[in-house]
Design goal:
Number of helices of chain B: 3
Number of strands of chain A: 11
Distance between the termini of chain B: 57 Å
Radius of gyration of chain B: 23 Å
Strand content of chain A: 5-15%
Number of strands of chain B: 2
Strand order of the largest sheet of chain A: 1-3-2-4-6-5-10-11-9-7-8
Distance between the termini of chain A: 17 Å
Order of helices and strands of chain A: HHEHEHEHEHEEHHEHEHHHHEHHEEH
Largest sheet of chain A: 11 strands, mixed
Structural class of chain B: mainly alpha
Largest interface: A-B, 74 and 50 residues
Oligomer: heterodimer
């Protein structure tokens, strides 16, 4: 394996053993990004100088015989909604162009403390709103498997960069599927942790009752390594959970035996319009789990069809409130105006893109006086019903297996209406509404050679079981050494 | 079926949202928001009598932290991204006309 394609675990191990220098890894990755990212457009900012400095420091520590932290020298890149001290952070929006944050998000602090090397910031849909990364105000990221297709979204830069070997792993955020859906479309592993498992301090807020940060990587074991570094209590995030963080990597290493694992198959996710290749791959995945000793159990999640409307009330409502902070006063772009109200309205009108405006309008519509009960309250009641469905199901099963997406990667411009695009997340939204952990793992290719993702949904804080089951899927029906052919 | 929102309604929401929209944007929003809301009519049919609204996925009580002062962002760092500043102040257009200092 060439240096550029080394995974998280391999890189850390080779650097710790002295077989490889961190500087060599970083230089190889920066060169590869320099060569290939002109085609892919995954990166919005490259932190070459600070990355190289951090690598020099890792090599110095190693030479001095100091103990290296777990991710020492591992090159990681970050979705551009994660705030980074000294590196431009835009959330792929014009309203934040040129903003250099004065602090690091907790997850970034944790990665740096673990020795990881931050290569740069990755493209996404503006303010993480979208399912194709086409809503970025800056550039269109291409799918490395087929550059005429989208990488998914909103963490499309995060999935494309990992798939193309432009970083060992990345972080994304997932409000309605924004880690799992792009992971599926780019043939990589993506984990949305339990709500509250990972701190959101320093994460550009979209919908605060749904947002979570999680890893994307080329293997389940690598995703587990990154997750155990970023997870855990943070006093700076009021929604952060105090529960101790288990060693996810040990769980994956120790537990590929899934004998007796009860896998739920919710019929609502297998009815309706799923691509035939996706359906076949999921059947194959379920059978592979059964062959390895898992028990397949049919379950019902009767309120599944209401997840989409409930989500698209709740998420825009919360977004309309969260995005009120972009007003042209304290940071970000300002449009000049003679009075304060015009300054707010003109700055926001000029700074936000179409989808962001649409969601702010939708959220404001749902929250305004007199309509609250009809929309927001009703959606929250439906949310409770969706959560109840899962609670009932988890009396009988340990994990739930579904497709991550109804189809493989689609072409640029293929989703012509907002609703068509919203449907790309139809299988991933419920997980966020219920606050459950979810994982997408590659489970095969379509006839056209595009990756297909299997989604596993787990009990609250049971990421370890999800990762174990994900590793079993990876071993049985994963992509193995197959790499995307869409880039030179 | 014409499900579009009225122009005036879209303008009112845009004002509430502090969002300037160009005339063509308003027209587009009328149709798009109308279609989305129409689709979400499915929610109305859900039986939710007596169901408590779920505000968060994980039940959490608000925590208290010890009442100790800690370092916070230095003013210079906080002001560095300001579009307009005067010393340690953010500058905005006159809020109350005639209120000369």
């Amino acid at each position: 394996v060439t240096v550029e394609w080394l995974g998280v675990a391999e890189t850390a191990q080779k650097i710790a053993s002295g077989e490889l220098q961190a500087v060599r890894v970083v230089d190889a990755l920066l060169a590869r990004i320099g060569n290939l990212d002109r085609q892919l457009n995954a990166y919005l900012a490259i932190a070459g100088e600070s990355a190289r400095q951090a690598a020099v420091e890792v090599d110095r520590k190693r030479a001095a015989g100091e103990k290296l932290p777990p991710l020492a020298g591992v090159p990681i890149a970050l979705k551009d909604v994660l705030v980074t001290r000294g590196v431009a952070t835009t959330a792929a929006s014009k309203i934040l162009s040129g903003w250099i944050p004065p602090y690091d998000a907790t997850v970034v602090e944790k990665l740096r403390a673990a020795g990881a090397i931050v290569l740069g910031k990755l493209n996404c849909d503006e303010f993480a709103m979208g399912s194709s990364t086409e809503n970025s105000a800056y550039q269109k990221t291409k799918n490395p498997w087929d550059p005429t297709r989208v990488p998914g979204g909103s963490s499309g830069g995060s999935s494309a960069a990992v798939a193309a070997g432009l970083c060992a792993a990345s972080l994304g955020t997932d409000t309605g599927g924004s880690i799992r859906q792009p992971a599926a479309l780019c043939g990589v592993v993506g984990v949305k942790p339990t709500y509250g498992r990972v701190s959101r301090y320093g994460v550009v807020a979209f919908a605060s009752s749904l947002d979570q940060v999680g890893p994307l990587a080329r293997s389940v074991a690598d995703a587990a390594l990154v997750l155990e570094v970023i997870a855990g209590f943070d006093p700076r995030d009021a929604t952060s959970l105090p529960d101790p963080v288990p060693s996810y990597s040990e769980a994956v290493a120790a537990g590929r035996d899934i004998t007796g694992l009860r896998v739920g198959l919710p019929h609502e996710y297998y009815e309706g319009t799923i691509d035939a290749d996706v359906r076949a791959a999921l059947e194959k995945t379920a059978h592979a789990l059964r062959d390895r000793g898992a028990e397949l159990i049919d379950i019902a999640l009767p309120h599944t069809a209401l997840a989409l409307p409930a989500y698209y009330i709740i998420a825009p409502a919360e977004a309309s409130s969260n995005l009120a902070r972009y007003d042209g006063v304290r940071y970000g772009k300002r449009a000049e105006a003679g009075d304060l109200l015009s300054l707010y309205m003109r700055s926001r009108g000029a700074g936000f893109g179409t989808e962001v405006k649409r969601r702010i309008m939708l959220g404001t519509y749902a929250l305004r006086s007199g309509y609250y009960d009809q929309y927001y309250k009703k959606a929250q009641q439906v949310r409770a019903l969706i959560k109840r469905d899962f609670d009932k199901a988890f009396h009988h099963v340990d994990v739930i297996l579904t497709p991550t997406t109804p189809t493989a990667a689609f072409r640029f411009g293929a989703k012509s209406s907002p609703l068509d695009m919203y449907l790309a997340d139809v299988f991933t939204l419920s997980c966020n509404l219920a606050g459950l952990p979810g994982l997408s793992v590659p489970c095969g290719l379509t006839a056209e050679g595009l990756p297909i993702g299997a989604q596993l949904i787990g009990k609250p804080l049971d990421e370890a079981t999800l990762l174990r089951a994900g590793a079993a899927i990876e071993e049985a029906v994963g992509l193995g050494d197959r790499r995307p052919g869409g880039i030179a | 079926v014409n499900v579009a929102l009225g122009r005036k309604e879209v303008e009112e929401i845009a004002l509430l949202a502090r969002l300037h929209l160009e005339p063509d944007e308003i027209e587009r929003m009328q149709g798009e928001l109308g279609a989305i809301l129409e689709h979400f009519g499915a929610l109305a049919a859900a039986e939710t009598e007596g169901v408590a609204p779920m505000t968060h996925a994980v039940p959490l009580d608000l925590r208290l932290r010890p009442d100790e002062s800690e370092p916070s962002l230095p003013p210079e760092d906080a002001l560095r991204g300001a579009p307009a500043r005067d010393g340690d102040l953010f500058v905005v257009p006159v809020v109350i006309p005639g209120g000369e200092s």
